[in-house]
């Protein structure tokens, strides 16, 4: 059986679910596939994913180009795949007939993971689809999502969903401000800080729209600093995107103590460096 591109295109266009072209809200994003919102397909077909290959089952939030490949039974035209707990899944065409395993077809994907993907165990499921768009039983790959938080007593973490240039700004209990401009006193003077002690910003992610795949910034203190904190998010540039959705989470010794979510939207005229206060919280003595 030859794989007909027109048939595969039709299957990608009409497989069940609610179409959401970008998939920006999903934890997993797959280039060259069609995004479908909602739960995974019902297992009513006979085709199967017969093998799954992954160079490394440890991944991190914000990772780009995670390669996963494998084989499926010979009647498969597509493979649907997604993460457990995600808001949708992806459908991709199979690539070609397997040379090493006659009677089967090969498939592969390069998957980007959102910066908002929570750490911990997370299963990736895969289902092979036939010419009628029916999907078979799911195969499973167990992944471990590694934490992107620094090992510190107090951490304030900003995560966002697209390659925009957002900046995390934290006002500490002593009134100093921590940002990509360094640590500054109330009067604006620069404080020289040992980054091993803090406070410090780990990275200026996607600075000036140069994509680094992280979409994440952390301000951390190695020791607990009790008192009141204020957190701002600066939308320096949306880098061509219509919006950027973000989440800010504050951690005290690894335990979340406060969280806020929001969004920055493209506006005309654009105002670089627009900042919004998104969170206030206290660390108890």
Describe this entry's structure for a reader:
By secondary structure, the chain is mainly β. It has one helix at residues 5-14, and strands spanning 18-19, 28-30, 34-37, 49-53, 58-60, 66-73, 78-83, 88-93, 96-97, 104-113, 120-129, 139-146, 154-160, 165-171, 177-179, 182-184, 190-191, 200-201, 216-221, 227-237, 243-252, 255-265, 274-283. The chain folds into 2 domains: 5-146, Sandwich (Immunoglobulin-like), CATH 2.60.40.10; 154-283. The chain is built from 1 helix and 23 strands.
Task: Provide the number of structural domains.
Answer: 2
Helical coverage, percent range = under 10%
Chain-averaged pLDDT: 87
Q: Which structural category do the helix and sheet elements fall into?
A: mainly beta
CATH architecture of the largest domain: Sandwich
Task: Give the end-to-end Cα distance, rounded to a whole number of Å.
Answer: 70 Å
* Helical stretch tally: 1
Q: What is the CATH C-level name of the largest domain?
A: Mainly Beta
- Lateral arrangement of strands in the main beta sheet: 1-3-8-7-11-12-5
State the total count of DSSP E strands. Answer: 23
Topology:
Elements: H1 5-14, E1 18-19, E2 28-30, E3 34-37, E4 49-53, E5 58-60, E6 66-73, E7 78-83, E8 88-93, E9 96-97, E10 104-113, E11 120-129, E12 139-146, E13 154-160, E14 165-171, E15 177-179, E16 182-184, E17 190-191, E18 200-201, E19 216-221, E20 227-237, E21 243-252, E22 255-265, E23 274-283
Parallel strand pairs: 5-12
Antiparallel strand pairs: 1-3, 2-10, 3-8, 4-6, 6-10, 7-8, 7-11, 9-10, 11-12, 13-19, 13-21, 14-15, 14-20, 15-16, 16-17, 18-19, 20-23, 21-22
